[in-house]
Amino acid sequence: MSNETPAPDRGERILSLRGISKNFGAVSALTNIELDVHAGEVVALVGDNGAGKSTLVKVLAGVHQPSAGTVEFMGQPVTLDNPATALALGIATVFQDLALCENLDVVANLFLGHEINPLRLDEVQMEVRAWTLLQELAARIPSVREPIASLSGGQRQTVAIARSLLLQPRIIMLDEPTAALGVAQTAEVLNLIERVRDRGLGVIIISHNMEDVRAVADRIVVLRLGRNNGVFTPDASNQDLVAAITGATENAVSRRSQRKAAQAEGTDA
Ligand SMILES: Nc1ncnc2c1ncn2[C@@H]1O[C@H](COP(=O)(O)OP(=O)(O)OP(=O)(O)O)[C@@H](O)[C@H]1O
């Protein structure tokens, strides 16, 4: 559809942010952010409330214009001056509200605004395409003729992700994709994220859930007060991650593990 050029090789740098800052009046939401995303990798953006995660995603989605800095996409400097530009380049975003139409079925939601033949809706072709994509993603959707209102939270997230894939993006950004999902649905969405990565896309996820982040991310990028505060691999200790997120080496998690270590020493003695 939007991108006819071949997909980048796995590991190739798709997106590169240098010195990105964003001010809202006197508030510095982002200061000097650096971020790289490669084909076939999941990057988790983590940080406390107000760390700047949503602002960064909105800059990449073309919703906010950065106050300073450069964005390179596939090696070329780009200006993401509105959401349509970002989408046309191949940067898709699934926001937390998912923006699905409750009363319409899965096929209609997948193709909303991108009907295969807008002048004469080709229902059969759209249905086949919807099934093929959902099967490729091994998505558990009972029927593509089911209205969204009757689907679970995990299935809705799946439909929202599948919809953005129809535009053949290079990068997909997911804002809290597992928030408010149960254990089984979370596992389903994490599996889906892995399959999206395996298609060679770069995936950026925002999450507050460290367990989910560790399960699916290849790199964990920490933001704190609008600045980069460390990049970790998923095997980083909880203590190091919490310290980077909160900016404190002395915190509830470190005190708890010190207490446990002290207790263990006590029982050893
Ligand atoms: N439109 C705006 N106008 C003014 N300030 C804003 C605006 N959007 C964000 N901010 C400020 O920018 C900072 C970063 O906010 P942001 O929402 O990006 O953080 P976050 O990491 O996504 O937090 P959360 O986890 O709570 O969603 C905050 O201080 C916030 O108040």
UniProtKB/TrEMBL annotation:
Nucleotide-binding recorded as keyword: yes
SUPFAM superfamilies assigned to the protein according to its UniProt record, in alphabetical order: P-loop containing nucleoside triphosphate hydrolases
Highest classification ranks of the organism: Bacteria, Pseudomonadati, Pseudomonadota, Alphaproteobacteria, Rhodobacterales
Domain annotation ABC transporter: ranges: 15-250
GO MF term (any one): ATP binding
Coiled-coil regions listed: none
Alphabetic keyword roster: ATP-binding, Nucleotide-binding, Plasmid
Keyword ATP-binding: yes
Protein name as it appears in the record: Sugar ABC transporter ATP-binding protein
Pfam family, one: ABC_tran
